[in-house]
Amino acid sequence: MKLLxxxxxxxxxxxxxxxRLVAILVPVMVLALSYEVISRYFFDAxxxxxxxxxxxxxGYIGLIGGAYVMRERAHINVDLFYGRMRPRTKALCDVVTxxxxxxxxxxxxxxxxxxxxxxxxxxxxxxxxxxxxxxxxILAIAVGGLLxxxxxxxxxxxxxxxxxxxxxxxxxxxxxDSTAGEPRT
Amino acid sequence: MGVEYLxxxxxxxxxxxxxxxAPVGLALxxxxxxxxxxxxxxxxxxxxxxxxLNSTTNFLLLAIPLFIFMGQVLMRSGLGEAMFHSVHVLxxxxxxxxxxxxxxxxxxxxxxxxxxxAGVMTAGTVALPPMLKRGYNRRLALGAIMAGGGLGILIPPxxxxxxxxxxxxxxxxxxxxxxxxxxxxxxxxxVLYIGIRCWIRPSDGPPLPVEERGSxxxxxxxxxxxxxxxxxxxxxxxxxxxxxxxxxxxxxxxGLFACILALFFRKFxxxxxKDSSIGTMRLTAMCLWILIGATVLSNFNLLMGAGKxxxxxxxxxxLGPLGTIAMMQLIMLILGCIIDEFVIVLVCAPLFTxxxxxMGFDPVWFGILxxxxxxxxxxxxxxxxxxxYLKGVAPPDVTMLxxxxxxxxxxxxxxxxLTICMLIPxxxxxxxxxxxxx
Lengths: 185, 438
Description:
The complex is a heterodimer.
Chain A: H1 2-23, H2 25-43, H3 50-71, H4 87-121, H5 135-165
Helix pairs in contact in A: 1-3, 1-5, 2-3, 3-5, 4-5
Chain B: H1 3-19, H2 24-40, H3 47-56, H4 63-77, H5 79-91, H6 97-110, H7 117-126, H8 128-133, H9 138-150, H10 159-168, H11 172-178, H12 180-200, H13 216-241, H14 247-264, H15 270-304, H16 306-317, H17 320-338, H18 341-358, H19 363-377, H20 385-393, H21 400-405, H22 408-423, H23 426-436
Helix pairs in contact in B: 1-2, 2-15, 3-15, 4-14, 4-15, 5-6, 5-7, 5-13, 6-7, 6-9, 6-12, 7-9, 7-20, 10-18, 10-19, 11-19, 11-23, 12-22, 13-14, 15-18, 16-18, 17-18, 17-19, 18-19, 19-22
């Protein structure tokens, strides 16, 4: 049990820090595209790299951030009925829906990785003037999918424990990170 | 088994998964792939990487983090609070002035952010307590805040519009410009409603006492804040309309300018930048993972011929073109009571838009109608984010029931605007035609 708790805690930390790491890329994106507009419009010197860089960064922010959001259980759901259930009933629902999510994420990781290897072997490039290698762009799918798969699995195991024993497995570190947890829509 | 039953089974499983509280994006993707496995075998899994890669390399979608970042920075800059204080000074003397001020300031905030949360939460925090203290009619005050905050997704920039454009290949720039006149109509109606109501019954919105009306200096500060707001709005909308930047690039410029403005207000430092970045990452990831699940499902539906089936069903109903559009609006209104507005766009846009286009309608027009529809969805009980946000920030004595009861007149106005824009398409299509010239 202690080993299991340690393992789940490690996954939580991985999700937290990978999310914080890709958050650094947000200002990078803003700066890259602002530079492109200013450079193109005022100096008549469009860049080759800005758009592709921003696209690249976007994929990693969005896909890897998924695990961070899952750690806070903040992925959008409809809690019309769910919100009124007792903890153990919620756990039952989570075990069922979690299984669907795990199935999908497993496919995302496997097929995302295959596609990366395929693009790498075929030496594919982005269809832009700068034409960077495509494989690093596709790699985000497998990496983001794997992190989200692990975090979903960690919550799933906790839910099974709650469902079977009626007791929570551990005090999950569900505290929302910093003050960033507000409006979403 | 025919396609009809398959579509029904998929739709049924979808609703069941929603009712069980599943994370929407992962559930949609998982359900699509389970049915894919059952009917076509593992080859349907090949949909996944191509669909995801199309989403993550879609330059339009980059606008989502950029506009969210801009909103996050502004929320922390103190500009929103400053604008509410300005309105307090300028409009407080009029009957209903504070409530009208909420609509005006929320419109300006709406032109800087693409979501509803920022407006509802800022107005609910800053403007609600003074209104309640001055004896404003409580339902009027609550309704005005939700109506104003809701403008966040109608006034460009707008995240649901980005999603719609990405799903349907409609022009995002045209959507942004096309939304301006409907937004203007809606703001006018809100202001007229509040003004006339408080003019007839001044006790609903008493004017401020003389000593609170502010000095000359306050008024100058108020005007300076207004100028900042318009400068920022120009950075986004102006650059798009003048053809200087694509909507995505305008989002980046807006984010940069928001940081400069926030520095000026001295509320910006490493902590604020860090929080804004993390907040942006969270929202972007939420959006992207729903988008992935929804596009996997809709691509699967397309391959299966569900689109044709839905189209056939609408044709069989024999409602005529405009009747069909009205029927779609009705379906989305009902969905809006129970489902999140992002999910409505992602599920309904790819299913309905091709039908509307095949009947000869403009996709930009159809998209704006959908956004107007979402305006209602966000505040129809039991499930609507304007309701939840307001409950979250309102003083504890404001009950959920009171919030539910406050929506009536404002939902009516929104329905009227939706109907006007449906019957007179020029309200939406005229301005983009002038600006982009065709």
